[in-house]
Amino acid sequence: MACRRLAGSNHFGNSRDMSEHHQSIAETNQRALLVGHFSTVGDVEVLRQTERQLQALGMAYDVTPYTDAREAVDSTWLNRFTLDPTRYSHLFVICGPFTPAMAVQHESIFGRFKHCVHIGVNLTMVEALATFNPFEVLLERDSDRTVRADLSFREAPSRVPVIGLCLTGFQREYGDRHRGALAEEKLRRLIKNSGAAVIEMDTSVPAAMNRFGLSNAAQFESICARLDAMLTTQLHGMVLALKNGIPTIAIDPVAGGDKVTRQAHKLGWREVFEPDQVSDDDLLAALTRCLSEAGRADAGLVRDRAIASLDGFDEELAMALQARPDPGLRDDLIPKVGMVLGLRKRFKAWKRRRRAQSRV
């Protein structure tokens, strides 16, 4: 691929040069095509930086990712196969590693647009530049010539609320009253509608049983304490969040309300709902309340009231030790079974004890 290389070109010049260059571009019919993987948020931030520079310079442009799947990231991005190469004067190749194999792999770009001025932006050049550099201008991130800070540093950080999502599994004890799937569906739709960042969490222990690798309360609550709000269908998802002063939207996964609802009412926490009754608008309004300063303050008050309400529990527990046994309370606790079934149960219990003893 023979092309003229301006190896030392690192910028467009000073402000006067920029102004003159802007005017010259505006008077021409030049148009750039911006291509890249655009497969990470960092890639997209570098793309935004490049777009802003071109807008400031008056250069018209279009964007196309290497693969169709990435088109869903931005509705303005075009499919590479629909482009007319004759419309474009410049090709900007943006972000990621770049090798000779990539040019072959993406022939739909590099074969059809080879007449354009090729400008590499924020690339990692894997091969030595002496053996591979198809760019007239290369503003690389790193190569055997130079290393620059990644261009995403220039993008001003944007912030959205950070929300925890803690869901209960199916609870067979509630039978056909269980509405966990419906509750999850509504909470996930709330997250999508709100545009918030989500951290999925699980209270299960040990770590091998935890979907996200958390192994103890300290890990779970350390994440809780850094959230802006918690969304949950689980009693302890709600309790541990409120314990850390984090406003919580709880959907009771049991039709008619059960332990989650009772606990919320006891705590005086109002943001608890039934899955069959709560609407998307109700949940968005609740999230707005939770993310307000008043919502955070209310969660702190709930925590303080809950702790105060447990005063005297130690004395009750101490008194419990004075109780005398009454086996009659449990006469019907375990149904009577036939002799064969009883022997099987005792044999299984014996095997469990043997396995437990072998692990000690």
Automatic annotation (TrEMBL):
Positions of the UniProt region annotated as Disordered: 1-23
Occurrences of domain Polysaccharide pyruvyl transferase (ranges): 211-252
Highest taxon in the source lineage: Bacteria
InterPro entries: Polysacch_pyruvyl_Trfase (IPR007345)
Pfam family, one: PS_pyruv_trans
The protein's name in its UniProt record: Polysaccharide pyruvyl transferase domain-containing protein
